[in-house]
């Protein structure tokens, strides 16, 4: 069997290793405008030794934003900003996909056009809260349920975003269908109570995801498109009555489309309060769904070096995505290969700010 450090054919790409940089929201885009900058380009360039970088989640429209200072891909200025990033990554020999994001109900009216309510498949308020546009902690609001015609408009937004990603020089796109954001809200019946063609049956609830994927593959080809999913994930107040049935269907449809990969998050990393550690009793989704998808499988969530090596060598996953470890270790693939000590990450600098905790982590000497 291959190892974590062997090359991997991922759709149309040849990766030099199987250490993937997971999408990591860092809230450091230029304001106003949610525009990537040279600082962001430096951050991604430092991590270009990853087999593949998956960018931080990037909103496909202003309506899709849920947090302050997250980047977009829906204005010319944002496209130009992302071009700085892709040029930097490619100059350093790396590969980078853009993650396409609409947060749905996980927002606040301060982020929305015209100060309107966030939108969702159904008018169900999630528990908890978020940050407003001025970085204040606020409770979630009861969202407005989308009309059927509006869902079609959002599908078009995914197409435009995929077009803009190509213009910005990315190597492909990942459709974000995980973590309780809009597509996941449509997928899972705890948040989707619709009675139209986007609700009810598993096939209907999966419609938005598959339509977004079809838009992306029509532009990029299937070998340049990935999807992120979070079966059993409870983040952002998510639940489903039949996760095995739901995600087995979704994965079979994605297999039929021949996309480059599916990126599945392990729920064992979703602990209360976002603290470190893993929940050993959580289902191992890579093992449950491995046979449901015929393409490459990336697994993410709570991996250390030994666990990641076992996952690839056993065939449970074709590659492993790392998040927090990549924040603190720009040369993570080399450190994992050699067994070198890892820098400790600082949670206080994860979100917002400048260079500190972003581009100042040292490489191994």
Helix content: 25-40%
> H/E order of the elements?
EEEHEHEEEEEHEHHHEHEHEHEHH
Strand arrangement across the biggest beta sheet: 3-4-5-10-11-12-13-14
Q: Terminal Cα separation, in Å?
A: 31 Å
> Which word captures the global form?
globular
The strand count comes to 14
Biggest sheet record: 8 strands, parallel, barrel
Write the layout of secondary structure elements.
Elements lengths: L7 E3 L2 E3 L3 E3 L16 H9 L5 E8 L16 H16 L4 E6 L17 E2 L8 E3 L5 E3 L4 E2 L2 H20 L4 E5 L5 H6 L14 H4 L1 H14 L4 E5 L13 H15 L3 E5 L19 H5 L6 E5 L4 H9 L5 E4 L1 H5 L3 H7 L27
Parallel strand pairs: 3-4, 3-14, 4-5, 5-10, 6-9, 10-11, 11-12, 12-13, 13-14
Antiparallel strand pairs: 1-2, 7-8
Commentary on this structure:
- By secondary structure, this protein is an alpha/beta fold.
- The chain has 11 helices and 14 strands.
- The strands form 4 sheets. Strands 3-4-5-10-11-12-13-14 form an 8-stranded parallel beta barrel, surrounded by 4 helices. Strands 1-2 form a two-stranded antiparallel sheet. It has a two-stranded parallel sheet with strand order 6-9.
- Strand 1 and strand 2 form a beta hairpin.
- Helix 1 packs parallel to helix 2 (76-91) and helix 3 (148-167) packs parallel to helix 6 (207-220).
- The longest helix has 20 residues, at 148-167.
- Mean pLDDT is 96; it is low at 270-274.
At a glance:
The chain contains 11 helices and 14 strands.
